Amino acid sequence: MKALPIILIFALIASGCEGRSPEKTLERQIAKLQRQGRNGEGISLFESIGKDIEPTQRTLREVALCYFGENRYAESLKYAKQAIAADPDDATATDLFFYNSKVLQEFEQAEPVARRWVNNPKAKGTLRHIAIFYTKWGRYEEAIEATRLGISRLPKDPRMAGTHSFLLAVVEGPESQHEFVEAWSSKNKPNAYFWENVGKGLAEADHHNEALPYLLKALKLAPSGDVASQYVSSLRGAGRSEEAVEWASDWSQKGEIDAAFLKMQGAVNFDVENFDEAARCFKEALGLAPADATLLVNFTVTLIELKRYEEAVDIAKGWLLKYERHADDRTYFYLADSLSWDRQYEEAIEHYATAIRMAPEKRRYVGNLFFAMNQLGQFQEVLDYHKRWKQTSADYSDAHLEKQLTRARSHVAAASGGKAETHTSPAERILQKANSASKKPYSKTNNL
């Protein structure tokens, strides 16, 4: 790979003898590599000599496509911006710009470009990318405005119609979507993307049973792991987890498997307490999408259910060493839970504290922190921490947290020879009774 850019540099020099400028030659070489799917080689060539040759507008666009092909979205966005600055009407560069902005969640800086394109009478296919961008941002009204324009300019385009049908279900409801789907599909030829988005829109609107036949239509036309994942998710959303487990198992024997499908297959197996199978799915999914924090969390939770605490700790710590920039509060909380279940309370406290700094409103995190502190006899520290935490967080009832506070108050009062002040709620008393034989952190989760 390292030798290749040098060979291409010689090609650039040779092409100069044929009358092409170095700028145009670089453009042609990178475009050729991008078309052939050799994105890494295109990037290497550009990084080797791009600083010495002024890139053309097309070169910038092709480089952005190369970075996109390598999932390097920040660099792709950088060069897509430069390509748009050189030619504001470049639809391909603009589509890349919106896709990368969506992935990187850089919404505000992209909105002026979105508004300009919505107001551009020549805009067509780009309107769908703008709609998807706004959807990811949660701005559904602006998204459906873009697809309405798109439908008026590309009335037969099944991708535009599919995106519009998704938004109709979310914004106006299933009845409005149904009217559009019936009218459009009677005059045009729906493809897999169209039916997929009809189904996904209904699922997004929590009409999971209604979504299922449309998702099956999409799978018949073009089997894909992504749509299979949504089908399993909708079975689960409809309260049909046992059926979802069977369907997912059948699909995994014959269909496309990707990280999203394995994540959902793991989740439905977790629902029915097939924890070994759930762990297998999450582990395999992490191999395909190693930086996915939710997959890491789900795998950790499943290992805790299997009482494989040391393995959960090792997996979570190893993941943080590689992908800390992708970590969220759940990552640290479930690492802390794994440590706490393994009776490594001092280290657990450190990670609980990190999770609380990232999400101070989550009382469950504080309750489990207090459990670990109580296990180490840090009773006064629990009360002091609670006093500080209450000043910055909403106060609402949580039985597990109250249980740990009561325990700390009792020990502090006993140490001082006084009577503990109690604040026991009815819910806390029920939890105390249920957990009286256990000295483990509260671990019930709705994470998956």
Automatic annotation (TrEMBL):
Keyword terms, alphabetized: Repeat, TPR repeat
InterPro entries assigned: TPR-like_helical_dom_sf, TPR_rpt, Ycf3/AcsC/BcsC/TPR_MFPF
Species of the source: Pelagicoccus enzymogenes
Biased composition (Polar residues): 433-448
Protein name from the UniProt record: Tetratricopeptide repeat protein
Lineage: Bacteria, Pseudomonadati, Verrucomicrobiota, Opitutia, Puniceicoccales
SUPFAM superfamilies per record: TPR-like
TPR repeat residues: 57-90, 192-225, 259-292, 329-362
First and last residue of the signal peptide: none
Region (Disordered): 410-448
